[in-house]
Design goal:
mainly alpha; two-stranded antiparallel ribbon; 6 strands; 4% strand; globular
């Protein structure tokens, strides 16, 4: 459903001449790129730390599958999402991040690949032969006509055999959302209240519900271990000698400026406003909410928007309360055109205000899937207001790029915004 949105900007990189014109008062590109890399490193380090805490709770759940331990694991999963979602501002402009994103945050997923599902889920999908493969219940499955041994549920099986098996993107076997599904189970409430209700006994070999409880625990453990591995790798990429840091520091940091604005605009427009919000609103489909099993979508969207703000302002508050900050894109834009920077900041503030409103509604008992329900005009309006704010924010990023004489950077687009007539409810 994605296509590229062409952004009418004049030049391909921030030229040396445009920087030197205000070099006395503006931070140089290298300083801004360094702040950007430092924030990325801190964000991924925090994500890794929270994933390790999640692992600790998962281990306790497997050792003693009680409702209390399941609740603790769910709370740890939600806490782990907060720093990670703020790192999504580093996508799109950085290929190394976008490539890893599919391992740790791929969505939506056909959960029938992993485990048992309700009858209303259906028995088949014309696009996916593994729609109800249920790896947890089977010791072998066929992928592309070939028999695959699934008797041992390992990190390698999940990452190398099952993730996007058969070339189908919705065959998501790894990452946050696979773990989310295992902890909550399906949300069968439609656009009504309530999240998934998987019982702790689904992990208890002695009081097993759902069948295959030992294998379900093995899958949960392997998926959590793999998440830690992937986040550890990504944290290294933003370290002092990491490949991601070296890439954004190239050409005196000018490569970083391109990455920054492509990431900010693409996440604002095509990804968050379009694929994650407008699409679900158009079709009023609870399957089109990002954290659909846990009903955590309001926070997922909020922290995406917060990540955009972090990068533009060059500041990030870590989970321990310490702050990473430095020269920012805002500083550079302000040195070129104070009016443009003021407008960007106002647009960001508006987006955060609209996201706050969604979070407030969710805290009041109305989950995001309820907000996008067909008969919820007030909820629909709250979501649409946030979408419009994000679209307006992307336009201000375009103007900032024009002020900096950045070249034709293309933001990710979305049919939901660019051509709604192509959007259908399946």
């Amino acid at each position: 459903m994605r296509r590229t949105l062409g952004v009418t900007i004049a030049a391909v990189l921030l030229s040396a001449a445009s920087i030197s014109a205000f070099a006395d008062k503006a931070p140089d590109a290298a300083a801004i790129a360094k702040t950007y890399a430092d924030i990325a490193a801190a964000g991924y380090a925090d994500s890794l730390s929270e994933a390790k805490k999640l692992k600790s709770t998962v281990d306790k759940l497997i050792a003693a599958p009680t409702q209390s331990n399941l609740k603790s694991a769910r709370q740890a999963w939600i806490a782990a999402r907060a720093p990670y979602m703020q790192t999504e501002a580093f996508r799109f402009g950085n290929a190394i991040v976008d490539d890893c994103e599919g391992k740790v945050n791929a969505w939506p997923l056909d959960e029938g690949l992993i485990d048992y599902v309700s009858a209303e889920y259906g028995n088949e999908s014309p696009e996916n032969d593994l729609y109800i493969a249920n790896v947890i219940a089977k010791t072998t499955i066929k992928i592309g006509g070939k028999e695959v041994d699934t008797s041992k549920i390992t990190k390698e099986l999940l990452a190398d055999k099952l993730q996007e098996a058969g070339g189908v993107e919705s065959n998501v076997a790894t990452g946050y959302h696979a773990i989310e599904f295992l902890l909550w189970g399906q949300d069968l409430n439609g656009t009504g209240p309530g999240a998934g209700k998987r019982p702790a006994t689904d992990f208890d070999p002695k009081k097993c519900t759902g069948g295959n409880c030992e294998r379900r625990a093995e899958y949960l453990a392997a998926a959590t271990d793999l998440l830690i591995d992937d986040l550890a790798w990504m944290t290294e990429q933003w370290g002092a000698s990491g490949a991601a840091r070296k890439t954004v520091m190239a050409n005196g940091g000018k490569a970083g400026l391109v990455a920054i604005f492509k990431g900010l605009g693409s996440l604002s427009y095509g990804e968050l406003a379009g694929e994650r919000m407008k699409l679900g609103l158009l079709v009023h489909d609870p399957e089109e909410e990002h954290d659909c099993f846990s009903d955590n979508t309001h926070y997922s969207h909020y922290y995406d928007a917060k990540g955009i703000k972090n990068v533009y302002l060059g500041t990030y508050t870590r989970t321990d309360g310490s702050v990473v900050s430095g020269p920012s894109p805002s500083d550079l834009v302000r040195a070129t055109s104070a009016e443009t920077d003021t407008n960007v900041l106002a647009a960001i503030d508006k987006s955060m205000m609209r996201m706050d409103a969604i979070v407030t509604r969710a805290k009041g008992g109305e989950a995001y899937d309820q907000m996008i329900g067909e008969d919820n005009a007030e909820g629909n309006e709250a979501v649409n207001a946030a979408i419009n704010a994000l679209v307006g924010q992307a336009k201000e990023f375009e103007r900032a790029m024009a002020a900096l004489k950045l070249d034709a950077i293309e933001f990710e687009g979305s049919d939901s915004l660019d051509d709604p007539s192509k959007v259908t409810s399946e």
